[in-house]
Amino acid sequence: MTSVLQAHALGRRYGKRWALRECTIDIPAGHVVGLVGPNGAGKTTLLKLAGGQLQPTTGGIIVLGGSPGDTPAQLAKVGFVAQDTPVYAGLTVAEHLRLGARLNPRWDAAMARERIERLGLVPAQRAGKLSGGRRAQLALTLGLAKRPELLILDEPVASLDPLARREFLQGLAQAAVEHKLSVVLSSHLVSDLERVCDHVIVLADSRVQLAGEVDRLLAAHHRLTGPRRDLDRLPAGQHVVSATHTERQSTYVVRTDAPIHDPAWTVTRLSLEDLVLAYMDERTADSRRAVLEVRR
């Protein structure tokens, strides 16, 4: 499988604080990958490392077979839409397209014009007068018309209302299919990722907690509910992600490839949001460490 991004033991530190640590991931080509985690988890740092805007403190990262931002040709392969959907308030929509054509050697003017017309954006209107959703669509158009092989989006819909978010994500999904794009989309809104992403990476505490194909991850995780049971009484093949207990009942989220036959458990499937929250919860890390200590 061809990779668009590979990182090994990647880390970035600001002074004494690690924004990203021990990040090892392999992102396949041709997919829409959701990068999710709480604020401060390291999402933006990882994306800026991938875009060549930051240099690693430790480890290494390869994007599309090269070092991020190393050459003009490498820069041309990657599109980047930042969190504030950057556009110039004083420039018109048409002036943005002309600027994009001057700055990007692979610029697709016909596609940019067609998309602007389809969205109903007025070429003479200044970007500062557009709604948040329209500005986001303009920024996405600029990113797509660059004709990148990899499009990186850093929480582009965080400030949009639900309707504008839906329209933006529908346009992104359509463009990814039409232009055979690889996409990495960061968000803290799991419901948005469920609409468009087939792979997911969960960052928490500046580390990768989970990564893989959404369908496979969901198939491998289960919620077990039953009479209170301690960790050391669970089968060794069940990796415990999280655990909660009441006086009489235990609820575990486990990862296992083996069928669960114990009739004492009620087994239910997880949604993507359930799965992500289990790995993001601060108590999750404590539970996983406890499992390792019990089973050593």
From TrEMBL:
Q: Cite the SMART domains for this sequence.
A: AAA
Point out the coiled-coil segments of this chain.
none
Task: List residues of the ABC transporter domain.
Answer: 5-230
Tree of life domain: Bacteria
Give yes or no: UniProt keyword ATP-binding: yes
Protein known as: ABC transporter ATP-binding protein
Keyword terms of this UniProt record: ATP-binding, Nucleotide-binding, Transport
The molecular function terms in GO held by this entry are:
ATP binding
